């Protein structure tokens, strides 16, 4: 099981590498309309601040890698926090000057910081992340102001996001197989664990998955969504068996169907063509999903793992936000700053509901805590809807 | 009356608008220029049947001594930022929207149809219907658990404090006063709701709505006093200080500059036990108020507005106690109805008591204490929310609401 999980994690990270893979290609012929050049007057000063801070980040990351190889948990936590503070001290400048490199650092920096809050540290997985962070920092250190036009950057953002979605779909199909195998072997505890892991992939790209007619209801319908309970299939059908009925009897047929359906979904997603409009609309829809069905506890009524889904929705939306930063920088840099702050707030609040790296059950939240999450979602949603201005 | 398209302003409409402008002058003293400039609103519709407009600008805020409109929305906001700059930018947006809505207008969209519309749109083509938007600051705006959030603690007005606990209070902790209260009134409910709804949207990221109440009142057409849900006239005493607003309503000397010409809003949400009331005899009902239900005349008097012969009142009647306090307040109450109480099947309905006064510690709180401890009406009522707000003086054109409170700190 552990190896399988590792493989999935690595796989999901490789998608992020893919996301940023195109970012080094620059086209110096397209100097006009540039979205992302640093301010001319103090450009040099900004660049040298970024360079200096990045050198410091690299030094800290080297220490982190060292602590990871020694499996020194306390040291890893302290460094994780320190690296995050360092990053926060200059990330706004990076976002404005080198948005593509920014996205990449952000992707690896965040999981390292999050892990510093856990009691148990997954050294193997963090070692991979730290290595990727080092790579991202090296690219940032050597970054040159991009000279691409905003429409080119937006096209690239779409292509990168499309690759991310496809990779998530592949991970989802693989994770579903692991889940189905656990269900069929009658191992309820393992099945519960795999259930949560698999759903993260789905919830991260939910709007895309929902665009395929009856495939989404077959995979993700809740009891409340179906007309006849006997036609009910998919994740939530097995969720009820696992958490409410506490018996996996008769679930094999649903497990087999689920594997078929998620493979079909994966196949369809490999053929999709996204555009900027669908990408941005999807990001807004993800927040709306979170602020309607997840925040009310309606999505996971038996397993109470709504916060897992909610965090995945947020993360999916943030992936789009990170991809469109160059375009936002051109149209409305204040909006990018506002969204960035709001995601940070949201992530920090969500982190406070984690215990040992897992989200607490929805029914452990008080009404006031749910309201606080809901208010933050509303603010995030209000800002994210404004991103359509780049289209 | 249908609006005439492309016909300019007819003589009759012009006369009507002039009358409104004059009313705006009388109410707000906003200056003829301000009143006339309302015609220039490009996205304000031509005169409609309910397009009477009251000026948002003036020496005092509109919606305080303005004749009561039919509908009320009252919203309590909590500020969620520590940034004074963000707060000010929200207040500027609110002010801009308030002047627009008071002129019957709505927010223009950017032209990019992939963005949500700037305005929710339900008030389009409806006119202004005497819309007023009135702002007040709660105690926690100045000091929240001892924290001076925006550096304004030194400008907290003299008489702003929490209303002390009263006998028979049934206060629901969900209804805290909050940092800012917004009172929206109009003769059209949809127009009133549209205004509050868009203020909520404009506040996103800076303030959130704690709670919202909606109220209604219906006055007979000939200027008679409106009635509350007990069927009794409510606000008779307002007639007694029509020329004395400085004495009763407007705060003055002893107040920080921003509050001079402002007023304190006292709010109580009072549930009325309608089922119990409706099963009480007419005599019991009239004894409770100390007035005739039909004419509104106090016991021993002939007309509604005749002096109250206190010796004729039952000692614990509502009117006797109000007179005993020897204080005047300016009442602006609305009725409310909500859902039914699921266990008893009884209605959740009653009064959104709103009153404006220049000094609540002197005028309102002693009166409230007297009534809460002795009023016969208490058998039929429960106070479930309580709040006090300081409503600043009016806004001049080019200023934003609260500007004189927040400037230079």
Automatic annotation (TrEMBL), chain A:
Keywords assigned:
Lipoprotein, Signal
* Span list, region Disordered: 28-47
Keyword Lipoprotein set for record = yes
Q: Which residues form the Imelysin-like domain?
A: 157-383
The record's annotation in CDD domains points to: Imelysin-like_EfeO
Q: Where is the composition biased (Low complexity)?
A: 28-41
Any one GO CC term of this protein is: cell envelope
What is the superkingdom listed in this entry's lineage?
Answer: Bacteria
The signal peptide annotation in the UniProt record is 1-25
As for subcellular location, the record says: Cell envelope
Q: What is its main location?
A: other
Checking Gene3D superfamilies in the record gives: M75 peptidase, HXXE motif
Q: Which Pfam family, an example, fits this chain?
A: Peptidase_M75
The similarity comment for this entry is:
Belongs to the EfeM/EfeO family.
Name of the protein in its database record: EfeM/EfeO family lipoprotein
- Specify the species: Paenibacillus herberti
Organism lineage string = Bacteria, Bacillati, Bacillota, Bacilli, Bacillales
From TrEMBL, chain B:
Enzyme class, spelled out: oxidoreductase
Stretches assigned to the Dyp-type peroxidase C-terminal domain: 225-395
Organism expressing this protein natively: Paenibacillus herberti
Q: Please explain the role this protein plays, according to its UniProt record.
A: Involved in the recovery of exogenous heme iron. Extracts iron from heme while preserving the protoporphyrin ring intact.
Give the transmembrane ranges. Answer: none
Q: Which PROSITE patterns match?
A: DYP_PEROXIDASE, TAT
Q: Superkingdom of the source?
A: Bacteria
- Cofactor comment text: Binds 1 heme b (iron(II)-protoporphyrin IX) group non-covalently per subunit.
Which compartments does it reside in? Cell envelope
Q: What is this protein called?
A: Deferrochelatase
KW Manganese (keyword) present = no
